[in-house]
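Thread amino acids onto this structure.
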């Protein structure tokens, strides 16, 4: 049965636009901010190795599953899953997975916008030359001065959220497609400039060694983090890729397309690592700097080398663009769903959802200053507390949302999407969507979706529980 349905929200001009959009979604703060600092925290090469395995065996099959569900369903993730479940006689409750994903995407957007706001602040700072000749203490104080100030954080968070809502409200073709066509090529050029620059620091090999030196003793600690990050960085498990798949033209091969997106995303993460760590080492700093890595260590480096200010400016523009093209994909599944459900305009729905994410994001804003003592997920001597004010351990609001989404909701969503494509949808409809000619390749793809990816997610979950 040919699938010639079209989404009411619009359609990409070609499969290349899907690649652009999905890559825009995948490449973001995850690659440029999170990947380097997590690699620093979890032991360099061991983390990178785990991450690559998770991308190949779990992330990519789930991306394949999401894309094919979206393109077959041609609606928002929730309604696509609901109608496909009906078509194949499965339970309509499968769509709950898409609801969870949709909520997870909004939660991610809430903190993402705050961090993207930091890079807006740094564009201005670099532009004004504030970091020129700065010391390590000075850079730490500059970052602290930003995160301690709820008003400044709120201003940038608000601006970034407005920018995200603006593109989304304009629609799939006039908003998303048009801006992605400009943003993505710029992003790649900026990244290359940065890489070339890191060659000149004289510490390139040290950075390279840090990223690729495999120390097996460090694998255990980072495995769940690596799995969570594989989901996060590929944007899978929330329906972002699914909704983009629903705008994909029907005559294009999903397999090659998804592989391209996965490769580009991995390439950008590794390039970002290769570009950043030499700069970190050149400045004599430690790579395990946590979330502040990019905002503390890089300005020091940029502040103390020739053309550093310009490079710094380039860098933070790059980060902002990458974050922007990702943030729109977090909002789109919910916007598509509520437009379908309520029949209201995109603008009205976008405004409501953006306000929701903005409000939740204020929790992250405050978690860096006056709300730093509000702790969630506290494992204390007297047992587990979901929330406790002033607890020693536990996670602040920002860390809590990051943990809840990356480590729990995304893997659950991804597991359900893979199971749905693998076991609920009929083999024929999957074959029709994937249109892989070789029976061997088709069976391999199906096997990855049905068995390998779900087992991978489960193993990591169990490993974490029994740790
Ligand atoms: N993949 C994005 C990044 O790496 C984050 C993201 C997660 C985007 C989930 C959409 C959905 O920054």
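Threaded sequence (467 positions):
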């Amino acid at each position: 049965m040919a699938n010639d349905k079209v989404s009411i929200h619009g359609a990409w001009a070609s499969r290349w636009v899907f690649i652009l959009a999905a890559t825009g979604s995948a490449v973001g703060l995850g690659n440029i901010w999170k990947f380097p600092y997590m690699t620093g925290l979890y032991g360099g090469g061991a983390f990178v190795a785990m991450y690559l395995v998770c991308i190949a065996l779990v992330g990519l099959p789930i991306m394949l599953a999401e894309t094919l569900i979206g393109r077959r369903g041609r609606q928002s993730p929730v309604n696509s899953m609901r109608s496909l479940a009906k078509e194949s006689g499965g339970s309509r409750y499968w769509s709950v997975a898409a609801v969870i994903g949709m909520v997870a995407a909004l939660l991610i957007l809430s903190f993402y916008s705050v961090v993207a706001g930091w890079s807006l602040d740094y564009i201005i700072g670099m532009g004004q030359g504030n970091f020129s000749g700065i010391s390590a203490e000075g850079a730490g104080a500059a970052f602290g001065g930003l995160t301690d100030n709820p008003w400044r954080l709120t201003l940038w968070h608000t601006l970034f959220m407005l920018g995200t809502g603006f593109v989304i409200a304009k629609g799939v073709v006039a908003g998303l497609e048009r801006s992605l066509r400009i943003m993505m090529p710029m992003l790649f050029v900026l990244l290359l400039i940065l890489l070339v620059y890191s060659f000149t620091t004289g510490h390139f090999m040290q950075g390279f060694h840090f990223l690729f030196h495999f120390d097996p003793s460090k694998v255990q600690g980072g495995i769940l983090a690596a799995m969570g990050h594989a989901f996060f960085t590929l944007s899978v498990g929330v329906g972002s890729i699914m909704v983009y798949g629903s705008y994909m033209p029907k005559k294009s091969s999903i397999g090659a397309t998804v592989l391209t997106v996965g490769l580009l995303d991995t390439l950008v993460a590794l390039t970002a690592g290769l570009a950043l760590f030499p700069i970190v080492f050149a400045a004599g700093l430690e790579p395990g700097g946590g979330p502040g890595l990019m905002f503390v260590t890089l300005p020091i480096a940029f502040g103390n080398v020739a053309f550093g200010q310009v490079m710094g400016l380039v860098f933070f523009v790059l980060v902002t663009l990458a974050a922007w093209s990702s943030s729109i994909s977090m909002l789109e599944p919910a916007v598509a769903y509520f437009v379908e459900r309520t029949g209201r305009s995109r603008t009205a729905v976008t405004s409501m959802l953006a306000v929701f994410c903005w409000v939740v994001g204020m929790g992250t804003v405050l978690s860096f200053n006056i709300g730093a003592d509000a702790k969630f997920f506290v494992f204390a001597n007297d047992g587990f507390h979901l929330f406790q004010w002033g607890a020693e351990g536990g996670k602040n609001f920002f860390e809590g949302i990051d943990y809840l989404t990356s480590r729990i909701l995304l893997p659950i969503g991804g597991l359900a999407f893979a199971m749905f494509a693998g076991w609920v949808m009929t083999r024929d409809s999957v074959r029709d969507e994937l249109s892989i000619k070789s029976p061997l390749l088709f069976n391999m793809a199906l096997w990855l979706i049905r068995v390998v990816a779900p087992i991978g997610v489960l193993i990591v979950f169990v490993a974490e529980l029994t740790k």
